Hints:
Elements: E1 3-7, H1 11-23, E2 27-31, H2 34-43, E3 48-52, E4 54-55, E5 58-59, H3 60-70, E6 75-79, H4 84-92, E7 97-100, H5 105-119, E8 125-128, E9 131-134, E10 139-142, E11 145-147, H6 151-161, H7 170-181, H8 187-201, E12 211-214, E13 218-221
Parallel strand pairs: 1-2, 1-3, 3-6, 6-7
Antiparallel strand pairs: 4-5, 8-9, 9-10, 10-11, 12-13
Helix pairs in contact: 2-3, 6-7, 6-8
Amino acid sequence: MAKILIVEDDESIVINLTEYLSDEGYEVEWAAGQKEAIEKIIKKKYDLILLDISLKDGNGFAVCAAVKENTSTPVIFLTASDDEYSVVTGLDMGAYDYVIKPFRPRELLSRIRNVLRRSGESIPVVKLDNICIDTVKGLVTKNGEEIYLSALEYRLLLVFINNKGIVLSRSRLIEEIWSIAGEYVNDNTLTVYIKRLREKIEDDPQNPKIIKTIRGLGYKVGE
């Protein structure tokens, strides 16, 4: 499970973001200011730091400098400031990404996952009802029991969990699994593999609750 430190002095943002990221399988801690953040960074290891630039007792640039001096932890800046100087300064200091507030949680989640992949850190275990997907070990379990998926079924499941809450068209899904299949994938092939995946992960494949059909549009996992 990846550990994320949020350095932010707006408690309402922290509460909402902590709840959202915890639901996505991350372990989240909070530091409200520069001094507290630096103390935590020196004492503990984190996989990612979400860092606001404007802090009550200092600024995010000082925290970022401490991060780079003491660790190799990737940083994503969160700030209401979108001026060119702040963007360039943050990136020049070695930040992996820069997100302007207010941000959409799903977009931030996508950026977090991309940064963790780029930095080589672990991606968290993802839970879908009674299904648990360990994307590091490539292990899928249902009610604690391992489910054996083919490479293409597993790839299809990863596409869904990496796009939670997003409606994916059939053409998009076909494009995503093409390289794994190693051969031409058509609409009928996709139908077969979605059926097989549902049979393995759904309690009632005829009335799926995880992989939902959105009529006329495609499929969706999660809200």
